[in-house]
Amino acid sequence: MPPQSIYIISGEFKVKNGYRNELVEMSLELIPLSVQEAGCISYSFLEDQARPGYFLFFERWKTREDIAQHFEKPYFTAFANAFPHMIDGDATIEIYKIASTETV
User: Fold this and answer.
1) Domains in the chain, number
2) What residue numbers bound the domain in which 61 lies?
3) pTM for the full predicted model
């Protein structure tokens, strides 16, 4: 049987001046809840050290349905509703379906 695909969500955005701490706090509340979801493989939130104020999300999920269920969770919808007023411009958020991986 071929290996099952996984899904990766990557997000990149710049936080508005004055919102960094609020964004970090909200993210640190969201992540532990998200990683407890059955379909979540990993969920990372990182600040780009080369570009102050830029942040990245990197998530791995077992199925696309797991992502859809995640997007409906009350803690995610609360984050998603608050998030837009904290960022400068638009976020780039992409979902990738990965058919295979290899460890190097």
Assistant:
1) 1
2) 6-98
3) 0.91
